[in-house]
Structure formats: C-alpha cells, structure tokens
C-alpha cells in the first residue's frame, strides 16, 4: 500500500508541475481525479499521509522569470464532490450561491486610490507571480475605479473558446495549446506583454477579499453587486437553497455546450458572510465553499483503428477511431490521442475496449484502455507523401513527424520558408497568398514559383491583386534567381539544417551543389559541428528521387553567386552563443555573420561544445548565463569579443 501511495504522490506532483508551471498537461482531468481520489482513500485506510502528498498542498512551487509576490491571505483549494445530494447536505437550511467554476487562471487584483496597483497569480497559494504589466491589457479589467481606498478581489483570467480556436489556428502544431486554460496561463505569464494585445484575455471576479472602509456583514451577493457597480464582470451565479439547487445544477449543465467559456464544474458557497466567517478552514480547504465537478459520462466502446493525420508543419497526429457512441447528447466516433507518448501509455490496439468521455463535457477523450493489447504500430512512412517519419521530443512528450519538406500536407509552410528572408528572400509572397496559389493549382512544389508568370491574367484578377502587385511579385521572383548557394540549401527546408549549417556545408564542398548531393553520411559527419542527426537528414533528403527531380528543375532558373574562398579562419573550431542586447553590432545576425565569416560557428543554446557565451549583461540570471556558469564556459561581453578576436 505504501509503495502505491508513493507512486501516486510522485505521479500527481509531476502532473501538477506540468499543469501549473509549464502550462500543459500530461494527463487528463479524469485521470488526475481518479488517481487523486485513490490516494485520498489509501491515506484514510492506512492513516498515513506522506509529507509531499498533493492532498496536503494548495498548489505547486512557482518557478519563472516573473517577480514573486507573497499573498496577504493564503489562497486555498476547494473540496470537491460529483454528487448533487452532497451539495444539498452541504447547504442544509442555509442559502448558497451556485456559480460557474471557470477553467482558467486565478488572479488577485489590488487597487489603491482608485488605480490598479497589482495583479498576482495564485501560484502555490502562498506565493504568486506579478503579472500587473499584462493584466493592464486584459480586455475587461478596469484600470481606474470609483473607489479611492484599498480594494482586493479575486477572479479568474480566461480565454474564450472562440478566441482559443482563432489563436490555435495560427500556431504551428508543436506550439498549439491543448485547451483554453493552458493558453490563458501561457499568455498572462508572458514576460513580453505584446502578446496580450493580440489575445482577448478576460477577467471574471468571484470574491471580494477587502474593501477598506466598507462593512459587508450580510450577504456575499452584496459584495458581488458592489464589484459589478465598480465595472468588474462577475462570474455568473445564482442564489439557491437545498430545495432548488438540483434544478439549478441541471440548468448550468444544459448551458455548457453553448457556453464560450470553459468550465470544469460549479462552485457552491454560503451566501451568509457571518456564517462563512464562523466556519474557518482546514489546512487545505475553506469550510464555506465546495466545488461540484461534472460527473463524466463514460461509455465503453471498441477501438477500430488509429489514423495518422499529417498537419501543415509535418506533425503527424494519432486519432483514435472507435465504434460510435452517444455521450452528453451527441454521437462521437473519434478522439485525438495527442501524441506518441500518450498512445504508448494507453497501449492501444485494434479491437481494444476503451472508455470514452468528454473533457469538460465538450472534447472527446479516451479515459482508459481496458484491454491494452498495444498492437498499434507507429508508421515509418507518411500516409500523405510516403516520406520517412521520425520521432522527436517535444515539451509534452514524443511526437511523430514527416521528414519530407515537400509533403503536400505541409507544402504551404514549406513554400513560405523557401520564400523567407534568410532563404530565397522573395518579398511580397505571404503565406496567405501561397495558400491561394496552391488551392488554384498554380503551385504544387517550390520550382513552380518560377512559372507563376504563366498565370498572369488569373493572378491579376484575384482579390488583393492587380497589375502593380503582380509586377512587384514577379520582380521579386526574378531578383531571387541570383543568390548564394547556402541560402538555397537553407530554403530547401531540410530537417535540422539552419542557415548556419547550410553555410558550413557549402564551405566544406566549395559551393558545389553536385558535391553536396553526392556527400555520404560519413563525409557529412566530418564537418565541424555536424552530428549523426544532421548528417542523416541531409543524406536522406538528397537520396530521395523526388527531391532531386525538384532540385534539378529549380536549378534551371537559378544562378549562384561565386564567392571568393575565405582564407581567414581566426575563429575556426570555436562555437559561440549570442544573447541579450548588442551595442557595436547592429543586431545578432550581423555579429553571427562576422563570426561565421571568420570560420566560427553560432548556435542557439549553450552546451558543453560551446566555446564562449557573448552577453553584455554578464551578471544576468538568464538561463543561458546559468548554463554557461554550470558548464564553466566563459561569458564575454561584445567589447571583450572584439578585443580578443577582431583587433
């Protein structure tokens, strides 16, 4: 029993860390609640509670670049139930307020002299993070209020489903958020508040903590009305009694499907302020409130297969297809498995009996696999293009990718990359324009960019185009035909090959495309800074017959600039990382080019292979500085770099 408890404590704490600190989930709410309830039962049965048990903690340790702030009053969690009868027992002969339990990020706002002074996240309940700079850009937080004394309130920061879908649509698949709560958490904790101007974060007040000089002694509804009169949007709630609570719960339940705001249940609190104050609290829960969690409708069905859907970024998503079942009033027959790690954890196989539910009564999920045959195999070929696949590690676990940049599923992003500034630098062709050209059949692969003139009349008559726009685009395409070979190599979108690596390979093979194409994996590994992964990616790309055919077609239009072979190798064998603001050089790109022209290499992260970290703020506590100090790598200023290598 003790070993099981230790396992559950470790598992739940890990899940909490990912949920609260990293803003993503490694298990569903259903799974978390199931494991949590099991731990509670084991603790009661054994009489033992481990010191790091999540049943004794309010939240998780706060770790980020934001300023830490200690709450004046500890913020507790809520006890929970899924039983309406327990809500009735909780109320007894008292009056309560039943409201949405919004699935967002709890925030404490403090006003002084009528002005917003601070906004702090819940954090671990005792210490939160200062997000004042971001809260001022929320869609509905009043910056000034008609109350000139100290005011403290709590509420929930949320991003509506409509906004969540809009934002997620624009993000590459590996950066998409799983749900609105994760998106909201990641947004409000941004160090750069420019992101807030592009995302409609809203705040809904649910508790008045302090209003200096105001003496509320009767009902909490009076405090909520007061907050509403000051301009705050208040969480929707209704006064209920033991006799009316069940009807109101069912009313809320019917509203879930049409609501634009994510909710993971309801909150019940006594309306009487004096009675609530008389109850006190436990180490973890206030005694005047309780959360009502939706009782998941879980249905068993048979797994038919797992489909692998290739996205625009090359990410291949596993989708479980099962025999149709009705859940929460609708028929569902498929659910996203999210990634390879979850697929492996569920041990899915054709014919398995799986339990299916709707997270927050909306999104279909697999709760568990009862038979766990594990016979589903991870495909080694992309279903769209037949290209090789590979598994990559993302922050949420292992994910499957198509390695072919010419895969039709990801062709628009590949074309946008090809036209990019550091690639072929074709100005005036946006991703949106490329998408239209692909839809109309003007472009199938990147060499087709050079034959767009064949569709002149159709393009000129397209919305947003005209004679001038068309002429500018054609001129940009013509100007791009004379370029550096390393820009072209980078433009091809070979996995793991950035501009720096493209320059290194061109230097190694004297700007000969023929030599690069015929290079073996062993030859490529010999290049300074290249490893097996990069070498394999390049070798695989040029061993693909379709890629070679496209390349040969493109070469008919291109002329590569013949660069003089540089003899100055002052920085040969040295690897640099650049971070922070620069003074002498215009930007990092200029400094990077200088280093590479002298035979050095620039990478994005500090590793044991790094020779120097260039940072004008040597005393910074940034992650790169910490890593450099940990690995005993010299941190030098821009001025020191010039003194050491350029004089």
List its traits.
647 residues; alpha+beta; Helix Hairpins; D-amino Acid Aminotransferase, Chain A, domain 1; OB fold (Dihydrolipoamide Acetyltransferase, E2P); 34% helix
How would you describe this structure to a colleague?
- The chain is α+β, with helices and mostly antiparallel strands.
- It has 5 domains: 2-56, Helix hairpin bin (Helix Hairpins); 68-292, 2-Layer Sandwich (D-amino Acid Aminotransferase, Chain A, domain 1); 299-400, Nucleic acid-binding proteins (OB fold (Dihydrolipoamide Acetyltransferase, E2P)); 408-560, DNA polymerase, domain 1 (Orthogonal Bundle); 575-645, 3-Layer(aba) Sandwich (Rossmann fold).
- It contains 23 helices and 24 strands.
- Strands 12, 13, 14, 15, 16, 17 and 18 form a 7-stranded antiparallel β-sheet that branches. Strands 2-11-10-3-9 form a 5-stranded mixed β-sheet.
- Helix 15 (485-491) packs across helix 16.
- The protein starts with a helix and ends with a helix.
- 33% of the residues are buried.
- Mean pLDDT is 86; it is low at 60-64.
Approximate strand percentage? 15-25%
**Tally of helical segments:** 23
- CATH evolutionary superfamily of the largest domain: DNA ligase/mRNA capping enzyme
Calculate Rg over CA atoms.
29 Å
Structural class: alpha+beta
Low-confidence stretches: 60-64
Oligomer: single chain
Any idea of the CATH topology of the largest domain?
D-amino Acid Aminotransferase, Chain A, domain 1
Distance between the termini: 69 Å
How many strands appear in the DSSP assignment? 24
| Overall residue-averaged pLDDT value | 86
What proportion of the residues is helical, as a percent range?
A: 25-40%
Instruction: Quickly name the level 1 CATH class of the largest domain.
Output: Alpha Beta
CATH architecture of the largest domain: 2-Layer Sandwich
The shape, in one word, is: globular
Structurally, how many domains make up the residues? 5
Sheet having the most strands: 7 strands, antiparallel
